[in-house]
Amino acid sequence: MATGVLQRVSGGLSRAKSRAQAAGQVVAWSRGFTTSTSINGKDSWFKSLFVRKVDPRKDAHATLLTKNEESNLYKIQFHNVKPECLDAYNKLCEEVLPSIHADKYYPCELVGTWNTWYGDQDQAVHLWRYRGGYPALTEVMNKLKQNPEFTAYRKERGKMLMSRRNQLLLEFSFWNEPVPREGPNIYELRSYQLRPGTMIEWGNYWARAIGYRQHNSEAVGGFFSQIGNLYMVHHLWAYKDLQSREDTRNGAWQQEGWDEVVYYTVPLIQHMDSRIMIPTKASPLQ
């Protein structure tokens, strides 16, 4: 199976390179970076990446890539749980997190909560949405400090954890906003550490590429980091099972243009990671 995957990737990249050369583009790879020149002296290939002309000295990545920086802010939490405490941890979260999600007093929503199935074991992943951006996040934090139930939850939770980390994220403008789903589904969180300075490039390719990955409604959400590990991208996908995931991903290679996306975005990546996750009972994404 691995040989077949490599053959598809190799064939796809060769076709993409041939089309690029036929269009008058020469792509040079050097130490993981890409540069390009135009054979016919017209506008460079790099300029053609941009959906609209952007002066990076005047606009932040967040302004260019998201719908409205003040609309939705996301927080993703990774909790590494003591193996013997995972069941108790899940039960504790099921008792507390849905009540915060349902209470309009807090301008936040629980998008999803999962346990990692393949990837880091005994890990919980939570994704929260704050409508109103940073002010909403601050409001929720201040209100939760006054909530005795949440204070008790944090104290009890601390006894069960080995480590934890989080990131603040914005959503890409070209992805749909995550909405609750009926199950059963498995979820894949694909995380990409990009080379500094390549986020705009990534966003412009995926703005066109997302159409190749909508046929089975597998696209859930796409995010990029603002605080935490920077130049980090997270793509969240839903599948019925692992075989459905395999079939869907293989099907993308049959679509004209997908190979070009892979060809041009792979050099932007420093590191990537994949988690297969199972939603917990409290998750709106089932």
TrEMBL record:
Chain ranges of the NIPSNAP domain: 187-284
Subcellular location: Mitochondrion matrix
This protein's UniProt keywords: Autophagy, Mitochondrion, Transit peptide
SUPFAM superfamilies: Dimeric alpha+beta barrel
UniProt key word Metal-binding: no
Main location per the UniProt record: mitochondrion
Keyword set includes Transmembrane helix: no
Gene Ontology CC terms: mitochondrial matrix
Coiled coil (UniProt feature): none
GO biological process, one term: mitophagy
Role: Protein involved in mitophagy. Accumulates on the mitochondria surface in response to mitochondrial depolarization and acts as a 'eat me' signal by recruiting proteins involved in selective autophagy.
UniProt record similarity statement: Belongs to the NipSnap family.
Name of this chain's protein: Nipsnap homolog 2
Organism, scientific name: Cyclopterus lumpus
